[in-house]
Design brief:
Helix 1 packs across helix 3 and helix 3 runs antiparallel to helix 4. The protein folds into 2 domains: about 120 residues, Aldehyde Oxidoreductase, domain 3 (Alpha-Beta Complex), CATH 3.90.1170; about 140 residues, Alpha-Beta Barrel (TIM Barrel). The longest helix is centred in the middle third of the chain and has 32 residues. The chain is elongated and about 70 Å long. By secondary structure, it is of the alpha/beta class. Belongs to the NadC/ModD family. Hexamer formed by 3 homodimers.
């Protein structure tokens, strides 16, 4: 996680929440000091230690933070994640933003760890997608890694993915691939999304670097993997959830990407207790 970008994001989030000042904390407190703990209310995998330390230091350098849990570590119900001591006004002003972020990131890390356990196949990487919350992609993809997953593209400039709408607008996989080959350098991988055997054959003929089997059953994924040359990376995606993920165990693909682990994950319950 890039700390310069993190400080910029935190500044934006605090500006949104605090506005011209915290009317509640500023009306009640002056220079009073307090101490407290950030505590896990349910088990899971933690993510977000830098958000706590940098967030509070951004509000007031006099706040002392001691983190007791590292990113990626397992939490039990009641685990103390961090201890905080300093001006009570800024501790309370920063509470909501910091908790919102670490709850969401820990939820993603926890769900990702669950997915890795369910799949139980060291030969297949669990990857994220671009189905992230606008403004939080860097953080959510970091949380995905802390849960034991791997990152797919960070953005449209990371690599080429020729999807169904590209193919429909271009006329064919061959046409789309030819145009891409002319436009991008040799360092850029090209992935093609397919749904049928005919499309698979076209993607293989066009020498795609990666072929995604989109919205295919586990049986179809195994069939398509067997037809794909070993030098082509294969990915399964679309319609795969924690409920049916185990069906894809030992399917032979290199990657399974899961959008559900970022776009609809439930936040982990974490609180600040003074």
């Amino acid at each position: 996680m890039y700390h310069f970008q993190l400080r910029t994001l935190l500044s934006q989030f605090f500006q949104e929440d605090i506005g011209f000042g915290d009317l509640s904390a500023e009306a009640i407190f002056a220079n009073e000091q307090a101490s407290g703990s950030i505590v896990a209310k349910q088990p899971g995998v933690f993510c977000g230690s830098s958000l706590i330390t940098q967030g509070y230091k951004l509000l007031n350098e006099q706040i002392n933070i001691t983190t007791l849990v590292n990113d990626g570590e397992v939490l039990n119900q009641g685990s103390v994640i961090a201890k905080i001591e300093g001006p009570v006004r800024e501790i309370l002003t920063g509470e909501r933003v910091i908790l919102n972020l670490i709850q969401r990131l820990s939820g993603i890390a926890s769900a990702t760890a669950q997915a890795v356990t369910i799949l139980d196949d060291p030969n297949i990487r669990i990857c994220d997608t671009r189905k992230t919350t606008p403004g939080l992609r860097m953080l959510e993809k970091y949380a995905f890694k802390m849960g034991g997953g791997h990152n797919h593209r960070f953005g449209l400039d990371d690599g080429v993915m020729i999807k169904d709408n590209h193919i429909a607008a271009c006329g064919s996989i061959a046409n789309a691939m030819a145009r891409v080959r002319k436009a991008v350098g040799h360092m850029v991988k090209i992935e093609v999304e397919i749904e049928t055997r005919q499309q698979l054959e076209q993607a293989i003929a066009a020498k795609a670097d990666v072929i995604m089997f989109d919205n295919c059953s586990a049986a179809t994924v195994r069939e398509f993997r067997a037809l794909t040359p070993a030098n082509i990376i294969t990915e399964a995606s679309g319609g795969i959830t924690l409920e049916n993920l185990a069906e894809f165990r030992h399917s032979g693909v290199d990657v399974i990407s899961l959008g559900c682990l970022t776009h609809s994950v439930k936040a982990l319950d974490i609180s600040l207790d003074l």
